[in-house]
Specification:
Helices cover 36% and strands 25% of the residues. It starts with 11 loop residues before the first strand and ends in an 8-residue tail after the last helix. Helix 1 packs parallel to helix 3. The mean pLDDT is 94. It has one domain: Ribonuclease H-like superfamily/Ribonuclease H (Nucleotidyltransferase, domain 5). Strands 5-4-1-2-3-6 form a 6-stranded mixed sheet. It is globular, with a radius of gyration of 15 Å. The protein is α/β, with parallel strands linked by helices. One of its GO terms (molecular function) is RNA-DNA hybrid ribonuclease activity.
């Protein structure tokens, strides 16, 4: 079983995800405070040729939102372990992604951050937003006071502390 955990102050938590499907690609993310209150969400279609490119693009966009909102302490969670390995220099990134990775690492220097892996099941809000981005026509900052009922339900489940069941 896995679950989403609230960040400790002064950190906010940024969960991002990239999605690559038959109809295109999307990126999404959600930023929440130590009480689990949603501070921002985003979803957008993106151009990419691989799942890792989608993940990189999603994190870059999430960091831009954090910067625009003035957040300096960020706990980043992604469900792509490969992305964490690239950021920590544990493995070299694909040369095709060189400039994206460079932009991502430069963006990270602006923050006090911690990055960790979260299983997809517990990253359901960001996963939903990334898939929503696949079906969107342009970048969207979703109105946090009028969120889609499915997304709102996932947020409430996360905040309740109930675990998600992970198979395999």
């Amino acid at each position: 079983m896995v679950k989403w955990i609230k960040p400790k102050p002064p950190y906010v938590k940024l969960n991002t995800d990239g999605s690559l499907g038959p109809n295109g690609a999307g990126a999404g993310g959600i930023i929440r405070n130590n009480n689990g209150i949603v501070l921002a969400t985003f979803a957008t279609p993106i151009y990419c040729r691989s799942a890792i490119q989608a993940e990189i693009n999603a994190l870059i966009l999430g960091l831009q939102v954090c910067s625009n909102l003035g957040f300096n302490f960020i706990w980043i969670e992604v469900d792509a372990a490969l992305l964490i390995q690239i950021i920590s220099n544990a493995i070299p990134g694909n040369p095709e992604n060189y400039y994206r990775i460079r932009k991502l690492k430069l963006s990270l220097t602006k923050f006090h951050y911690h990055i960790s892996h979260i299983f997809r099941e517990a990253n359901s809000c960001a996963d939903w937003l990334a898939k929503y981005g696949c079906d969107s026509t342009s970048y969207e900052d979703l109105n946090i006071n009028n969120l889609h009922p499915l997304l709102l339900g996932m947020i409430l489940l996360d905040n309740s502390g109930l675990p998600y069941i992970r198979y395999g």
